[in-house]
């Protein structure tokens, strides 16, 4: 069911209690979506000249902290989110070269991709990994330019398959409460 009065998450507000970081947007009669622009979700949806016409227009919504001009979101430089999966082993480590503007508390999570069956999401699993973050060294991998706000996150992978069964996971760097674009990791 579409939300006509969504709530905005505000990680920049002080944490007094969890409800203090959420702000309700003004109600509207048109459902909001994260789609761009105000157009039908699919160009083949045509409900003209029918008995019960339906408004399928959507309003664009994107959280303010994902705005590129604000530059708050962490970004993984190496391994790149555009590349293929990175293979890791149990108890092994992974070095992430990250760009972290306005550094806050940095954490790294690994999320198993879920699947839905009969409207129930199965296989939900999120792991908070051990991480140590240091200012980036000057010796970066060949062809990778080290930005001024670059850091290296030394991440320790889960030690057993009990915590993370073998397979593919999305790995995210989180700066404060703002998540980076994810990379795929294959743990085996």
From TrEMBL:
Gene3D superfamilies: Immunoglobulins. The lineage of its organism: Eukaryota, Viridiplantae, Streptophyta, Embryophyta, Tracheophyta. InterPro entries: GO-like_E_set, Ig-like_fold, Ig_E-set. It comes from the Eukaryota. Residues 83-187 form the Galactose oxidase-like Early set domain. This is Galactose oxidase-like Early set domain-containing protein. SUPFAM superfamilies: E set domains. Residues 21-41 are annotated as: Disordered.
